[in-house]
Amino acid sequence: MLKFVVRRLTLESIPTLLFVATLTFFLIRLAPGGPFSAEKNVPPDVLKRLEAHYGLDKPLLVQYRDYLLNALRGDLGPSFKYPNRTVNELIAVSFPVSLELGIYALAMALAVGIAIGLLASARKNSAADYLSMSAAMMGICVPSFVLGPLLVLVFGIWLGWVGVSGWATPSDRILPAITLSAMYVAYIARLTRGGMLEILSQDFIRTARAKGAGGMRVVFVHALRGGLAPVVSFAGPAMAGVITGSFVVETIFQIPGLGRFFVTAAFNRDYTMIMGTVLFYATLIILFNTAVDILHVWLDPRLRN
Amino acid sequence: MKRNASRTLVLACLALCFFSNCPNRQSPVQRGIRDQILHVGNFSEPEDLDPHIVTGNVEFNIVMALVEGLVGQDPKDLSPVPGAAERWEISPDTMTYTFFLRPSGRWSNGDALTAHDFIYSFKRILTARLASEYAYMLYCMKNAEAYHRGEIADFSLVGVSAPDRFTLRISLARPTAYFLSLLQHVSWYPVHPPTIEKFKAFDTRGTRWTQPPNFVGNGPFVLKRWNVNTVVVVEKNPFYWDASSVRLNAIHFYPIESNQTEERAFRSGQIHLTYGVPLTKLDWYRTNRPELLHITPYLATYFYYVNVTRAPLNDRRVRAALAMTIDREALVKNVLKADQAPAYCYTPPNTAGYTCTSAVAYDLEKARALLSEAGYPEGKGFPAVELLYNTSETHHTIAQAVQEMWNKNLNISVSLVNQEWKVYLATTHALDYDIARGGWIADYVDPNTFLNMWVTGGGNNRTGYANPVYDSLIARADNCPGRQRRLGFFQQAEAILLNDLPIIPVFFYTNQSLIHPAVKGWYPTLLNQHPYKNLYLESDG
Amino acid sequence: MPDTYLDKGTSLWQDAMRRFVRNRLAIFSCAFLAALVVLAVLAPLFAPYSYAEQDLALGAAGPSVRHWLGTDILGRDLFTRILYGGRVSLMVGLCATAVALLIGVTYGAVSGYAGGRLDTVMMRFVDGMFAFPFTIFVIILMVFFERSLLLLFTAIGCVEWLTLARIVRGQVRSLRRQEFIEAAICLGLPRRRIIFRHVIPNVLGPVIVYATLTIPAVMLLEAFLSFLGLGVQPPMSSWGLLIKEGAEAMEAYPWLLIFPGMALSATLFCLNFVGDGLRDALDPKAAKD
Amino acid sequence: MPILSAVNLRTHFHTRHGVVRAVDGVSLSVEQNEIVGIVGESGCGKTVLCQSIMGLIPVPPAHVSYDKMSLDGEPLHTADERAMRAIRGNHMTMIFQDPMTALNPYMRISDQIAEPLRIHRGTRRADALPKALDALKAVGIPQPESRIRQYPHEFSGGMRQRVCIAMALITEPKLLFADEPTTALDVTVQAQILALLKELQARYGVAIVFVTHDFGVVAGLCDRVMVMYAGKVVESAPTAALFARPEHPYTEALLRALPARAARGQGLRTIAGQPPDLARQIDGCAFAPRCEYATPECTSVEMKLSACGSGHTTACLRMQKGEIGELGNRGAE
C-alpha cells in the first residue's frame, strides 16, 4: 500500500504537474492583452520597462526555465496585479479560508446527501423516495448565484440571524457553506441512492437478513461500504473543487478565499498567479484522487491484490 | 431510516441557532458611530499603495487618506486649499509657483516634512526605471518630460528647486491654468525618502514599503492593517499638522466587488458608505429610502469610439446618422435610471466654468437623409458593422438598447461583440473594431483632460482621427494664459469634434452611492473625492 | 399476452421498452420534454413578440395581459425570450452533455479496461485536466475561433467529461474481473467490441444518473460562458442568462427569476424521472419484479 | 411435538401478469432430529416455501397467509417483522445455493460468523471471536486461526459454504433450512458438505429442511421426503417408501428419469410438456396435462392429499381410488 502511494505521489505526479505547468505556461501567452495593458493608454517605453522588471522581455523558453526552477524551490514568483505580494503569500492567506469553508460545505453535502440517498434507497419508488430526491434536485437547479442572495435576504437581512458578508464571526460561515454545498447534495444523493440499490439487490444482503439483521444494521453494517463506492469516486474531484473555493460564492458573500483568483487571475493576465493557482490546484487534485483510490481499496478488500 | 434523517435535521437547526448571536446584536455601523470608525465599501483589493505607482480610483481613495500633496481639496467643490504647503505665490507670467511649507509639517513617524522630500519624490516618479504610468502628469514642469524620457540626465535642470528647507519653487514648461488642481493628483504626492531608501524602492516595484508597519505618510491617517481581500484599516495620524480637526478615529476599507453584495452589506449594517448602487435597486431606494440614495454628477462621459479609418464609418455622414439616432433620453430615463444626463456634446457641462455650446442633434429624418446621401437609402446595402464592448452587465444592456435603436430608426443591423477586458483593450488599441464602447473619467477638473485626447497620435486617441486644425486649437489653448481666450479655443475645438464625430457621446456619468444618515461632512463633488479629514459620524437618532 | 411467459424470446431492449412504457412518471416526463422541445423549435409560431423588440418606456413590468410573463429591463417580452432561450439551453444542455458523455464514457471505459500503465497515464492526464485554468481557455477559444455554438460545446465538453471518466473507470475496473467479460475474451472478441458491447452497457446505470445531473449544470455553465461572450450573442438569450439576469434583480423584479427558474427546474425534474425510468428499465436485475 | 408445524401455507405474488400462486396451500411439519427433503423441478415453489416461513419474502408484492404456523410450539407470525427478527438467525436459520455471492465481500469471515451471536446474544466482538473459531473448526476449515481474519474472496466455493453452515449453526438453532446448498458445488465437495451436515445434525440435534432437485442427495440424507409440483405437495413419504413404491405418477416419472435407472445404451426418459404458468388458474391436478394416467376427471376434481400407507400421502385421485395398481411396472415395458 505504501509503495503504491509513494509511486503515485512521485513517479506519476511529477509528469502530470510538469505537463499542466508547460501547457498552461505557453497557453496563457496566447491570450491577447498583457498583464499591464490598462484603460488609460500606457506609454510604450513605460510598458517596456514594466515587462523588463518582471523578466517578460526575455525569450519564452528562458522565462519557462526560470519559472520551473523557482517553482521547484517553492517560489511561485511575485503577483503582477498585486506587486508587493508574492503568489505564495496570496495563496497562503486565502487558502485556509477556502479550506475551512470547503470542509463545512462538503461535510454538510455528505451528511445531507447520504441521508437523503439512504432514505430514498430504503423506500425505493415510494413517495419518500421521489420527495427526497426532488428536494436534492433543487440543489442543482437553484444555482449558487440565486440561492446565495436568497439565503442572505431571508436569514441575513429580514431575520438577522446570521452574518451576511465577510469572514469575521463564526456566523459568517453558515450561509456560504449551505450555498456551496447545495449543488453537491444532489450529486451525492443520487449517487448514494444508485450505489445502495445496486448493493441491496445482492445475495449477501439476503443472507444478512436471514441472520436476523434489522433494517438499520443491513444498511449501515452491510450495504453502506459497497453502496458509497460511486460517491467516493465523485468525492475526490468534488473535494478539490469545494476546498479551492468558488468564485461565485466568494463574490456573493465577500469571502477572501482562493476561488476568486482562479477567475480574476485570468482576467488580469496575472501570469504568475495563474500558474501558481493551477499548480496548487493540480497538487490538491492529485492528493485527493490518490486518497480516493486508497479509500476504494480500503473499502473493497477484493481490490487488495 | 426515517428516524436517522429527522435526527440530522434537528441537529442542523440547533447548530444554526447556536451559531447566530441574538438578532439585535450591535452592527458594525452602530459601533462605528459610537467609536468614530467609518466603514466604507471600496470596490476591489488595492493593487498597491505607492502614490507613484497606483493608477485606479480604488487605490486613490486610500492613498488620499495616508498622504497629502502640496495642495489639499475643499470638501465642497475640490477647489485648492492649503495642504502640506501653508500658502503659495504665483509669478505674474503664471510660469513659476512658490510654495511655503508648514514648519510644523511632520511625517507619521515624526520626521520633519521638508521641500527636499518633495524634490526627492518628483525625481522618483520621473525616474524611467520606476516606469510610473502617471509620470506624464508632471510633464507640465520644465524639462520633466525630457528627464523622464532620458533625453537629459541631470535632474537639477528640471524646474523644481528648494531655496530653503520649507520653500519649494516650481517653474513650468508652459502656462498651465489648472496647475493647482493638477497638484491634487496622487502623482504629485511626496514619499518618505528614508523609508524608500531602506526598502530600495526608489526605482523598483514590488517592495514591501507600503505594507502596514513600514508605511510612512504625511496624511491625516496612517496605515494600520491590510488583510488581502478582507479589509484595509487606517487610523488617525497624531503627527498630522491638522490632527485636531480630524474627527474620525479610523476608516475600514472593504474590497467588495459585487455591488449586489455591497448593497446587502449596507442594508444589514456592515458599512456606512457604498462604492456604487446596483442598477436594479435604484428605483427601490428612490421610492422607499430616498434619504440614503446619493446621486451626484461625475466628471466622466460614456461614448462610443468610431473607427474613422474603416468603411462605411470613414464617411462623416454615416457617423452623423448613427449619432443622431440614439434616443439618449429614453436610454437614461428607462435603462440607466440614475439621473445620468444625456450627452449631446463630449465635455461634461461647467467643467471649471466651461460648457460646450455646440451639440449633436437627435433628428431621425436628418439622419435617414444623411444615410441615403452616403449611399444607403433606408439602410439598404449597409455592410455588417460590429459594436464592441467589454464584458459588463451595464455595457451589455446599453449596447442592446442602442442596437435596437439603430435597427428600428435606420433599418441597419449592427451585431454586438462582447470581449473580455484585456482582449477589448488589445482590440481597441490595435484599431481592429468598427464601433467600440468608451468611457473617460477626468484626471483633474479642466476641459483639457477631455479634449486633448483626440489630438493626432494622442495616446488615448484610438479612432484613427487626425485633424490638424483640431490639434492646433488644443495646442494654442494649452499655451494661452488667458482663461476666457483659452475656453474660446476649447469651444472651437469641440465644435470640430462634434462635427467630425470620431466619437459618439451618449451620456454623462453620475456617481451613485448609499450613505448612512450618520455620515456628516460628505459633499457631492465632480471627481467623487471626499477629503476624509472633514468626515465625521453623528447619529441624529 | 404471450400464453406462456417463455414463449417468445424478448430481447433486452424490447423488454426494457415495455418496462419503460409502464413507468407512468417517466412517460409523462418524456411527453413534457417533447412538448418543451416542440415549443422551443417552433418558437416563432408561438411567440407573441420578437425576442429583440424593446419597449423602453415600459421597462421591467410584471405579468400582464399583453405580456403573460412580464418584461425584462429593456421591456422585452419574457415569455418570448424563454421560448427562444429554451432552444439554446436545451440544445446546449443535450448536445454538450452528449459530447461530455461520449468522451467521458469512452475514455473511462478504455482506461478502466486496459488497466496497468495505460490506465495510469490516462488517469494522470485527467488529474492534470482538472486543474486546467478553464477561464483562460475560454478567452483564448473566443479570440482564435469564430464564435459558434460548436465552440461552446467543445468548451463545455472539455470540462464536464472529467468526473464522468473517473466514475466510469472505477466501475469498469471492478467489472473487468467478472466472468462474463472473461467469457467474452475467451470467445476471442476484439477489445473494441468487448468494451462497447459488453462493458459500456453494464455501466449505463451510474452514467445515466450522472448525465441527468450534468444537463442542468451545463445549462448554467453556459450562462457564465455567455456572460464572457463565448455563448449566446445578444439580443438572443438562454435560460442560464435569463436566470443570471433575474438573480440580479431578484428583489426588484422577482418574475425575471421565477419563470426562467421554473422552466429549468421543470426540465431538470423531467430529465431525472426519464433518467430513473431508463436506468430501471435497462437494469437486467430489476427485470424480475 | 414437531419442531416446525406449518398448515395450509399460501404465498401469492400480485404481479402485473396476475396473481402467481408460488406456494398454494402447503402443510409442512418437521420433527426433532429429522431431515425432511423437499424435492421438485425448479419453479415448483420449494425455495419460496422456505423463504416464506423465514419471513424473507418482501410483503408488498407477495401475500403470505397460513392457518397455523409454529416453531417448537411457539406460534410464528411471519408478518410481525420485529418478532421474526428475534427468531431468524437464532432459532431458525438458512443456508443458500450460491456460496460465491452469499457472503459479504466487504467483511472479514470472523465478523460474519460472529454476527448472529452479536445480534441475538449481544456478545461483544472480543468474546464472539473464540466462538467463531470453534464454529470454523466444527465445519472442518483447515488452519482456522489464520483463515478467520481473511475475506470471502480468499475462500473456495466449498470453503464458503462451510462458513455459511458455521454461521447458521453458531446459535444452535432448532431448525435449519438448506436451500440447495450443494447444487453449485462439484460432486466431491458436495459429498463432503452433505456428510458435514449429517454429522452436525446428529451432534446438535437440529431439524433440517433440505430443499433439492437431486434425488441422489435425498436418498443419502433425508428421513422423509415431500414432492412438490406447481406450488402444491403431490406426495410425501418416508424416503425408503417413496423410492420403493412411488404413489404419484409425477414422483414415479421423476424417479424414472434418473439415469441410474435406465439400462445402458437406451435413451433417457423425459417428462413431456412444460410446468404450468402459475399465474393462471389451474383446475384439478396440475400435473394432469403431462400425466400418462390422466383422465378427464383429473382436471375437474380439486386435489387433496390423503394417506395411502404409514406416513405416506398422495394427491393423485386415481391412486387414492386404487384405479392404478403398481405404478412402476408400466414404465418397465
How do the strands and helices of this protein lay out in sequence?
The complex is a heterotetramer of chains A (305), B (541), C (289) and D (333).
Chain A (H helix, E strand, L loop, with lengths): L1 H29 L13 H10 L6 H13 L14 H36 L4 H15 L2 H15 L15 H27 L2 H8 L4 H13 L1 H15 L3 H7 L5 H10 L2 H29 L6
Helix pairs in contact in A: 1-13, 4-5, 4-7, 4-10, 5-7, 6-7, 6-11, 7-9, 7-10, 7-11, 8-9, 10-13, 11-12, 12-13
Chain C lengths: L11 H11 L1 H18 L1 H4 L31 H37 L1 H16 L2 H11 L4 H27 L3 H8 L4 H9 L4 H25 L10 H10 L6 H28 L7
Helix pairs in contact in C: 1-12, 2-4, 2-12, 4-5, 4-7, 4-10, 5-7, 7-10, 8-9, 10-11, 10-12, 11-12
Chain D lengths: L3 E12 L2 E13 L4 E5 L6 H9 L7 E4 L2 E4 L2 E2 L5 H7 L4 E4 L3 H4 L6 H13 L3 H14 L5 H4 L9 H13 L5 E5 L7 H18 L2 E6 L2 H7 L2 E6 L2 E7 H6 L4 H9 L48 E2 L5 E2 L2 H5 L5 H6 L1
Parallel strand pairs in D: 3-9, 3-10, 7-8, 8-9
Antiparallel strand pairs in D: 1-2, 1-4, 1-5, 5-6, 10-11, 11-13, 12-13
3D architecture notes:
The complex is a heterotetramer of chains A (305), B (541), C (289) and D (333). Chain A is mostly helical and 305 residues long. Chain A contains 13 helices and no strands. In chain A, helix 8 (203-210) packs antiparallel against helix 9. The model of chain A has no long low-confidence stretch (mean pLDDT 86). In chain B, the strands form 5 sheets. Chain B has a 6-stranded mixed beta sheet with strand order 12-16-11-15-13-14, with helices on both faces. In chain B, strand 13 (385-390), helix 13 (393-410) and strand 14 form a beta-alpha-beta unit. Chain B is of the alpha+beta class and 541 residues long. Chain C has 289 residues and is mainly α. In chain C, helix 2 (24-41) crosses helix 4 and helix 2 packs across helix 12. Residues 1-7 of chain C have low confidence and may be disordered. Chain D is of the alpha/beta class and 333 residues long. The radius of gyration of chain D is 21 Å and the shape is globular. Chain D is built from 13 helices and 13 strands. The chains are: A mainly alpha (305), B alpha+beta (541), C mainly alpha (289), D alpha/beta (333). The interface between A and B is large, with 68 and 61 residues.
